[in-house]
Design goal:
Layout: H1 2-14, E1 16-22, E2 26-34, H2 41-50, H3 68-79, E3 91-96, E4 98-100, H4 102-107, E5 115-117, H5 131-140, E6 144-150, H6 156-160, H7 168-178, H8 209-227, E7 233-234, H9 243-251, E8 256-259, E9 268-269, E10 275-278, E11 281-282, H10 293-306, E12 310-313, H11 327-344, E13 349-350, H12 353-362, E14 364-367, E15 370-373, E16 376-382, H13 383-387
Parallel strand pairs: 2-3, 2-12, 2-13, 3-6, 7-8, 8-10, 11-12
Antiparallel strand pairs: 1-16, 4-5, 9-10, 14-15
Length: 392
Amino acid sequence: MNLLRKLWQRGRDLLPVEGFYFDHPIVMLQSDDWGRAGLRDREGLEQLAAAGVVLGERSYDFYTLERADDLAALRTVLLRHHDSAGRCPNLEMNFIVANLDLEKMSAVGFQQIHLLPLVEGLPSGWDRPGLLQAYRDGVQEGMFSPALHGTTHFCRTAVERYLADSGERGNLLRTLWKSGTPYIHWRMPWVGYEYWDSEPAPDDRFLPAATQLDLIGVGVGAFAKLFSTLPRSACAPGYRTNDDTQRAWTQFGIHVAQNGPGVASPPHFDRHGILQLYRTVEFEPALNRAFSIEACVRSAEACFARKIPAIVSIHSINFHSSVKDFRNPTLKFLDEFLARLQSSHPDLLYLHGEDLYQLIGRGSYDTAQGSVAVGVTRKSFRKSRVALGLEA
């Protein structure tokens, strides 16, 4: 069955697909991992150091959790910029809507996984006053657009495999949990991603369709309680999706899918009617030691030349500041990046996924400033040729 699926997908990639192209330069900011608790600030760092876990080899050792003042600083920068329609940039924030309830897990010897929905607060030991309200304020002001990342970032099936393990993996889990840290992915990639288990044979790594449907349903419910609305856009943890994921998304009203960087494909609809978007600019100062504003500007300009959106990937870690200050350098770079694009393109527009979906459907999209019309051209392309750089 999996072989047939592969052959079917390869065949589809050879067929022409209708892509969408735009007569204005469009910039979209997409950001993952919001709401996901990581290293529990300085106290967690010190506990892990005392347990013999040496941190600092990679940036994600210092992934913590955003604070309300981090969001306030981000909003200040976004407010400095406006597009040709008078609108500020909008950051599409993909939320993990639950964290490990480590207090409950500790009470049962870490032999069971318990989750705490983000809407109900943060795990014991975490202190983020005003954070949930800061999310909602940014949404109300039109600078943040919430989207679904998942219920958890890790694959629950994969983690449960090691709950009773007395070896290296089980011990690492318990060491991290005792410090208030759910996991550090690069140190333990075997935890997988929500819909994808890294350990089975390659053709069997995605969870069954029914399991994915249940997980997405739980995530959508928690998202709705947090933001009083249903998600319309989603980005799977680790960008790991298959046809079952996409089908489940449609059943819960999601009609925009965010995909990772690597293939600069024009926006297009899949067979489920989901608008597929692909990130084209990797704006990750916290993660890339060779980060360059020039490289990001060139990537954006290449998109404008092809008349496709410049979709910027910028993970939430770039705005963290409680253990290591990633925030201030990132905001300085982002300020310069946006200013340069606006200076070079007076007709530039800032959109998010739902705007683009609306624009493709009717030739305009709504903003607080009014309706904005944009020319949309439909043109066939082949995914296989775009992946090879042979077709624009």
